[in-house]
Amino acid sequence: MAEGSVQTVSARVVQRLEPAAPSSRDLYIDRLRSVMTVFVILHHTAITYGAPGGWYYNELRPSGSLSSLLLTLFVATNQAYFMGFFFLLAGYFTPGSLERKGYKRFLADRFLRLGLPLLGYILLLNPLTVAIITAYQGKGFWPTFAHYWNHAIIAPGPCGSHRPS
């Protein structure tokens, strides 16, 4: 082997052993998304335990109690900004992603990341969740699940859940 080729091979080995360049991700954005996701979880937990709002299950109904009023204040304040903030972040990063990927790959990626989970939710997760709740209420699991499928009910979220009477 020639001396020049040995240096080239050793240079490649050194390049592989060097740590990768730091990512260009903005960590504060990731942290902000994490905090906002925690707010979404707390928001729905508050609805479950006494604040008004559409959700699958309510342990306590809204009332005039202090705890219910505080939860209502939290939900009202939180709802005023958290979804809009997620859309703001998504819109902020869309042009760069679109430029990097092109229209076809961008749309395919969005369908995989958003469309397929939404279809899974509409076709399976939402009917199962509503059926579990109605079974808990003593109305039966399978009749509710069959009702969703037989009537082709599409509920894109818990606020739009149609529960059979």
Task: Write a structural description.
The protein is mostly helical and 165 residues long. It is built from five helices and no strands. Helix 2 packs antiparallel against helix 3. The termini are far apart. 8% of the residues are buried. The model has no long low-confidence stretch (mean pLDDT 84).
Can you give me a brief rundown of this structure?
The chain has 165 residues and is mostly helical.
Considering the chains and any ligands shown, give keywords for the structure.
mainly alpha; 5 helices
Largest sheet: none
Question: What is the molecular shape?
Answer: flat
- The total of beta strands comes to 0
Mean pLDDT, to the nearest integer, reads: 84
Order of helices and strands: HHHHH
Radius of gyration, whole Å: 25 Å
Helix content: over 70%
Structural class: mainly alpha
Counting copies of identical and different chains, the oligomeric state is: single chain
Number of helices: 5
Please mark out the parts with pLDDT under 50 across 5 or more consecutive residues, or reply none. none
Percentage beta strand: under 5%
Distance between the ends: 82 Å
Helices, strands, pairings?
Blueprint: H1 3-17, H2 27-48, H3 66-79, H4 82-136, H5 141-150
